[in-house]
Structure formats: structure tokens, C-alpha cells
Specification:
The chain is of the alpha+beta class. The protein has four helices and 17 strands. Strands 3, 4, 6 and 7 form a four-stranded antiparallel β-sheet that branches. It has a three-stranded antiparallel β-sheet with strand order 5-14-13, with no helix packed on it. Helix 3 runs antiparallel to helix 4. It binds 2-amino-4-trifluoromethylsulfanyl-butyric acid and cobalt (II) ion (CO) (2 copies).
């Protein structure tokens, strides 16, 4: 769909109006609610296809549209990325087993607005290293969001994430990034999860984008499998990711995809 709202900065980033925040709020909430609901289904023995079927059902039941079904040939309502899968894991016959960690990423369209969010889930008892990876990844996203305010730059966001992650002796994936969104799925800018302070486009009130850091226990390099979607760590190390859709406000950031149930820490129960 053509996006004609607001204006475009010299960096090609759309600036939305106050009223547009309510559209993003509604779309983001639906995506986050679906991520809340799928949590109890993530147990050893479930297939990733069953998790995706549940998500498809929730999308239908709520009368929203999946942004991923039909996107560049993708055929599922979610991406489910298990263990060393970095992102874009395709739901299928794979059976989740005790100790697995997985990211579930859902994007819905409500009244033309896109809500894009992902979270980590765990099956059964996970290793302390895996729990630590999940915690660091979540905290890196929140540190990135804390760097969001008018006048700061996208480099400030990347630096906040990278410096925190690397201090924990983990690595930030370079091959995938966050993105502008609003009434389209992916638009400028590329939101890098690494960077240097003061570098890059300047943040302005009314920008909508995702931050979605992928963090590896080992090296940052990835490769895409023959299915043309599944991205994995080259060294087979564990990878985690969290994603929020946010809007820049006068004071900082509004997170559109906060868990209504506050369920992030569910990942650490194991
Ligand atoms: N939701 C993903 C993102 O964060 C994109 C998934 S595209 C798909 O941008 F086709 F793989 F679903
Ligand atoms: Co995204
Ligand atoms: Co996403």
C-alpha cells in the first residue's frame, strides 16, 4: 500500500503525525497479545508448525492480517527460530525438545498499520548460558530503546546495544537489522544493532521503526540455508532475538508492542 502520511526527512525517513500513534498502538498490541498467548504452548514435543497454526488462528480470530503470509513468497504467520537459528526460521515438522530456546516473530496489519514483534521462549529446562543469552538479548533491546530520543542518532542506538552485548562477551549479528515501518512492512532506515555514538541519521519525533537485536553466544557470522530464508550462526552457537516496534516521542520512545501480560521473564523460568 502507498504511504502518503506526514513528511519524509532528508534521510528518507517518514515522519508520522500524532494521530498515527494510535494506529501503531492498536496493531502493536495485537501482535504482542498473540505472543503472550502462544507461550503456554511452547513445551517439549510441540512442533513449530503447531505453534504457527495457533498463531494463524489467533490472527484470523482477531480479524487482523498476517504481514508475513505472501511476503516475498513466505507462507507462514510467524518465523520460529530455534537454538542456532538466528532469524526467519520456517515453521514445520521440527519437534521442540527439552532445553530448546526459540524466538517467535509475528507481524500483523490492523487498519493498515503494521505491528512487528518477537520474543524468546524456552522449552523445559535450559542451560544457564542459554538463560544468560536470552537475558542479555532482552536487556540489549531495552538499552537500545533507552537511547531513542529526538536529537540522538541511529548510531547511538547501535552503540548502546553493541557495547552492552560485547561487554558480556557475546556478539551482535551484523547481517540483519531493524527497519522503519508504519503503513508498510519495511521502510528506511536500516536500524543497525551496532555503531558509534553520533553517527547516522538524527532521530525525530514521529519516526516509527523496529529495534530487533540478534545476539550470539559465539561469533557474529551467519549464513542462509538452501530454503533461502533460515539464517543460522556459522559456528552453530546459540542465538537469541527480541523485537519491539516503537515510535519516537518528544521525550523518548513509545513501545507499541509491550507484552500486555508483562511476560518477558517467562523465558527465564526454566
Ligand atoms: N518479522 C520479520 C522482521 O522483523 C520479518 C519476517 S519476513 C518473513 O522484520 F517473510 F520472513 F516472515
Ligand atoms: Co522487524
Ligand atoms: Co519481526
Amino acid at each position: 500500500m502507498e504511504d502518503t502520511r506526514g513528511r519524509i526527512t532528508k534521510d528518507g525517513i517518514r515522519i508520522y503525525e500524532d494521530v498515527d500513534f494510535s494506529g501503531m498502538r492498536a496493531a502493536g498490541r495485537v501482535a504482542a497479545e498473540i505472543l503472550d498467548l502462544v507461550g503456554p504452548l511452547v513445551v517439549p514435543g510441540v512442533t513449530t508448525a503447531a505453534l504457527d497454526d495457533f498463531i494463524t488462528g489467533e490472527v484470523t480470530r482477531r480479524g487482523v492480517t498476517s504481514a508475513t503470509i505472501g511476503y516475498r513468497g513466505y507462507q507462514h504467520a510467524s518465523c520460529i527460530s530455534v537454538n542456532h537459528v538466528v532469524c526467519h526460521g520456517i515453521p514445520g515438522a521440527k519437534v521442540i525438545k527439552d532445553g530448546d530456546i526459540l524466538n517467535i516473530d509475528v507481524t500483523v496489519i490492523l487498519d493498515g498499520w503494521f505491528g512487528d514483534t518477537s520474543r524468546m521462549y524456552v522449552a523445559g529446562n535450559i542451560s544457564r548460558k542459554a538463560a544468560r543469552l536470552i537475558e542479555v538479548t532482552h536487556d540489549s533491546l531495552m538499552k537500545g530503546i533507552e537511547a531513542v530520543k529526538p536529537g540522538n542518532t541511529f548510531g547511538d542506538i547501535g552503540f548502546a546495544i553493541q557495547s552492552y552485548v560485547e561487554a558480556q562477551r557475546m556478539s551482535v549479528v551484523r547481517d540483519f537489522c531493524g527497519h522503519g515501518l508504519g503503513r508498510v512492512f519495511h521502510s528506511p532506515p536500516n536500524v543497525l544493532h551496532y555503531g558509534r555514538p553520533g553517527v547516522g541519521a538524527v532521530l525525530e519525533e514521529g519516526m516509527f521503526f523496529t529495534i530487533e537485536p540478534m545476539v550470539n553466544l559465539g561469533r557474529p557470522e551467519t549464513k542462509v540455508l538452501a530454503d533461502d530464508w533460515t539464517a543460522v550462526t556459522r559456528d552453530k552457537s546459540l542465538s537469541a532475538q527480541y523485537e519491539h516496534s516503537i515510535g519516537v516521542t518528544a521525550e523518548g520512545a513509545e513501545i507499541f508492542t509491550l507484552s500486555p501480560g508483562g511476560l518477558y521473564k517467562a523465558a527465564f523460568k526454566g
